[in-house]
Design goal:
Elements: H1 3-12, E1 22-25, H2 30-39, E2 43-46, H3 51-65
Amino acid sequence: MDGYELTRHIRRSDRLHDLPIIMITSRTGEKHRDYAMQLGVNRYLGKPYQESELLAEINALLAQSSR
């Protein structure tokens, strides 16, 4: 199962539907990013990524969910 398939399963799940998803991948092309976003990924990071960037994205998603 790849990240796209996992995202489809999560978004179809009644229990997990609203779970934020940050996809980290080596596929940084616009085509792959657009596809992931269409599937419902909240954030899309390319490898290599900075730990500070990932933490900032996590914090932003947590702040959104607490509103």
